[in-house]
Amino acid sequence: MNVTLSQIIDATWITIYISLFSFILGSIIAFILGFSLYFTRKGGIYENTKTYIILDVIINFIRSLPFVVLLLLLIPFTRLIVGSAIGPNAVIVSLTFYAAPYIARLVESSLLEVDNGVLDVAKSLGADTKELILHFLLPEAASSLIFNLSIALVSLIGATAVAGTIGGGGLGDLAISFGYNRYDYLTLVTAVGIIVILVQITQFSGKKLSKKAKYL
């Protein structure tokens, strides 16, 4: 049976849905982790070696796991959360855990690029933590953050294709189930082509927004 245009469109929307939701959820967790790393690092405003080491070890451990391995390890937890180990919603759980530590490092890296003089100004003005984050750190790191977040989203789009190998849905699932397993190379090339287009759009948009943020 040949793949219909409707199936390709549905698979594309599923890939976008999985990528965006896991990116949003992962980013929320990542910003908390990233700012915690930044504040508790050596020389940070709230320097706390124990807290930093604990977060550092947890993040490095999760990041060291290949996505497929992490996906399999999280099956019991995924079933508990969404009631199934396969399908788009199940993949979102795994991708969120995969994305959070990766994005957290990118957030920390972007914050470390902020000139220490900005922090000195914030301190001299008596800014509290909330004001420091909203009015000083985020505006100064905005360009780098946007660029790094676009890189993270690209990685997530690629990871959805991997999730397709275990019935995660989306273009990866379409490419494996119909393209590869049924020797339908037109479907395989089409699915891969759409993934490449999504990646290119994300990278282009990230660069554009990053440049605009630099001059705000």
Number of helices: 9
Helicity, as a percent range: over 70%
* Uncertain runs: none
Structural class: mainly alpha
Order of helices and strands: HHHHHHHHH
Overall pLDDT level:
88
The count of DSSP E runs of length 2 or more, i.e. the number of strands, is: 0
Radius of gyration: 20 Å
**Shape, please?**
elongated
Describe the structure.
The chain has 216 residues and is mostly helical. 82% of the residues lie in helices and 0% in strands. The chain has nine helices and no strands. It has helices spanning 5-40, 49-64, 67-73, 75-82, 88-112, 116-124, 129-163, 170-180, 185-214. Helix 1 packs parallel to helix 5 (88-112), helix 1 (5-40) runs antiparallel to helix 7 (129-163) and helix 7 runs parallel beside helix 8. The longest helix has 36 residues, at 5-40. The chain is elongated, with a radius of gyration of 20 Å. The N and C termini lie far apart (53 Å). The model has no long low-confidence stretch (mean pLDDT 88).
Topology:
Elements: H1 5-40, H2 49-64, H3 67-73, H4 75-82, H5 88-112, H6 116-124, H7 129-163, H8 170-180, H9 185-214
Helix pairs in contact: 1-2, 1-5, 1-7, 1-8, 2-5, 4-5, 5-7, 6-7, 7-8, 7-9, 8-9
